[in-house]
From TrEMBL:
Name of the featured protein: Glutamyl-tRNA(Gln) amidotransferase subunit A
Record GO terms (molecular function): ATP binding; glutaminyl-tRNA synthase (glutamine-hydrolyzing) activity
Reactions listed under catalytic activity: L-glutamyl-tRNA(Gln) + L-glutamine + ATP + H2O = L-glutaminyl-tRNA(Gln) + L-glutamate + ADP + phosphate + H(+)
Pfam assignment, any one: Amidase
Keyword ATP-binding: yes
Keyword Nucleotide-binding among record annotations: yes
Gene it is expressed from: gatA
Active site, renumbered: 79 (charge relay system), 154 (charge relay system), 178 (acyl-ester intermediate)
EC number: 6.3.5.7
One Gene Ontology cellular component: glutamyl-tRNA(Gln) amidotransferase complex
Assembly and binders: Heterotrimer of A, B and C subunits.
GO biological process, one term: translation
Species of origin: Candidatus Taylorbacteria bacterium RIFCSPLOWO2_01_FULL_45_15b
Family: Belongs to the amidase family. GatA subfamily.
């Protein structure tokens, strides 16, 4: 069984547990052996929990005595910005050094209620700001398929943890693509649910109107199983919605925004691969159709206004008094704030706080933040219109495969361009799924690629339906 750890999905694990062919303890031991071997070079985990074997043992006892729980004994890795009571959580930032969570995020509580166990905290871009994991205060995460390349971000640690075979699944957060893009770079499945489908309670906030907890898994089915556990309304997050009932439809028509997905701006192999995915979908019986999303070309501009504005406000709470790091400025409270924030935040976080404060300042609020929100409404309308004609929208997940570490260091704008296909779903609030498809061979290494399906609000079921068929599940 051990040699299978990189490919085991939740259903197979549960079946093996039930038949007594595998125990949660054995599975965790196999994952720990992988971490022992790989993590020093990949840097996917910031911490491996010292109680994971104990928790696995407890789960084994429950399995033996016929206990139920959809995830009983299933080990999951958790991004460092999602709170687990009693454990450290730091959003990969120095400013949260020493902070321990005093409560469970709702998603964590729901996973626990179904018997899941947690293997460790995964590395990420500091405060989820980034698309390569190079913005972590604890060093970049390397791509398991090519150690010279990035794992993607900001949930790069979670993606690498699943891809390297050290956890059955991982949870992450997605504000502009942070689950789907690293999933694509690392060759795993990534789901960003509808805004409000999963509670954000206990997720360290970045851009609150965009943030969603998402899933990184080995199969579309696993994403479906986990989504079903963590979704639903929550009194602790008043943006959550009720579990949407199924509309009973089978999605058949797929829209392709041809203006957006064209040869220009895309890696030629990504473009070719995308066309192959269209062919495959047509062979599976789907109808494809060219659609227009006229405001999508402004999506990056909207995103890089709305996100830093909201992030700068959310990050105001880290002042050296309430959480984590405290630096004494030697000259009263204000000097403590300045000293702590200067020492605690990294370069990209400071950049976004500066931009956000500028955007929200008295003279510019209307010109930037409000304007971006008006444009966002028009983008939402584009999606509503498109979904009257088609059931799903297909794009590549990212315009390129994983790039080389350091390549975009001095060019944040080219890094932001990597988000071109993912930010639209966050701005519109619709759910989107990245499924691995194809590779690009560079220097003898096969770099994974991914394609992305977006569905109407609360129609995750359509993503799972097409995703499973497309992924041959
Ligand atoms: N890469 C995007 C950014 O840098 C997305 C981040 C995210 O989804 N958390 O903002």
């Amino acid at each position: 069984m051990e040699r299978d750890t990189k490919t085991l999905t939740i259903d197979r694990i549960r079946e093996a547990f039930r038949r007594g062919e595998l125990s949660s303890t054995e599975l965790v031991q196999a994952y720990l052996a992988t971490i022992e071997k790989e993590n020093a070079s990949l840097n996917a985990y910031l911490e491996v929990f010292d109680d994971v074997l104990y928790e696995a043992g407890e789960a084994d006892k429950k399995i033996k005595s016929g206990g139920d729980g959809k995830l009983l004994g299933v080990p999951i890795a958790v991004k460092d910005n999602i709170l687990i009571k009693g454990k450290r959580a730091g959003a990969a930032s120095k400013i949260l050094e020493g902070y321990r969570a005093s409560y469970d995020a709702t998603a964590i509580a729901r996973l626990k209620a179904e018997g899941a166990i947690f293997i460790g905290r995964t590395n990420m871009d500091e405060f989820a700001m980034g698309g390569s994991n190079e913005n972590s205060a604890y060093g970049p995460v390397r791509n398991p398929h090519d150690h010279a390349r990035v794992s993607g971000g900001s949930s790069g640690g979670s993606a690498a943890a699943v891809a390297m075979g050290s956890a059955t699944a991982a949870i992450g957060s997605d504000t502009g693509g942070s689950v789907r893009q690293p999933a694509s770079y690392c060759g795993v499945v990534g789901l960003k649910p509808t805004y409000g489908a999963v509670s954000r309670y206990g997720l360290i906030a970045m851009g609150s109107s965009l943030d969603q907890i998402g899933l990184l898994t080995r199969s579309v089915k696993d994403a479906e199983i986990l989504f079903d556990v963590i979704r639903g309304s929550d009194a602790l997050d008043n943006t959550t919605s009720l579990r949407a009932a199924s509309d009973g439809r089978v999605p058949m028509t797929i829209g392709i925004p041809g203006d957006l997905v064209s040869e220009t701006g895309l890696d030629p192999i990504v473009f070719k691969n995308f066309n192959e995915s269209v062919k495959k979908l047509e062979e599976l019986g789907y109808k494809t159709k060219d659609i227009k999303l006229p405001h999508a070309k402004f999506a990056l501009a909207m995103y890089y206004i709305i996100m830093p504005a909201e992030a700068s406000s959310n990050l105001a709470r880290f002042d050296g008094v309430k959480y984590g790091l405290h630096k004494d400025g030697g000259n009263g409270l204000l000097s403590d704030y300045l000293e702590t924030r200067s020492a605690g935040f990294g370069k990209e976080v400071k950049r976004r706080i500066l931009i956000g404060n500028y955007i929200l300042s008295a003279g510019y609020y209307d010109a930037y933040y409000n304007k971006a929100n008006m444009a966002r409404e028009m983008l939402r309308k584009d999606f509503r219109t498109a979904f009257q004609e088609v059931d799903l929208i297909l794009t590549p997940t990212a315009p390129t495969p994983a790039f080389v570490i350091g390549e975009k260091d001095n060019d944040p704008l080219s890094m932001y361009l990597e988000d071109i296909f993912t930010v639209t779903a966050n701005l519109a609030g619709v759910p989107a799924l990245s499924v691995p498809f194809g590779t690009k061979e560079v220097g003898g290494k096969k770099l994974p690629l991914g394609i992305q399906f977006a569905a109407p609000w609360n129609r995750e079921e359509h993503l799972f339906e097409v995703g499973k068929r497309f992924n041959n599940e």
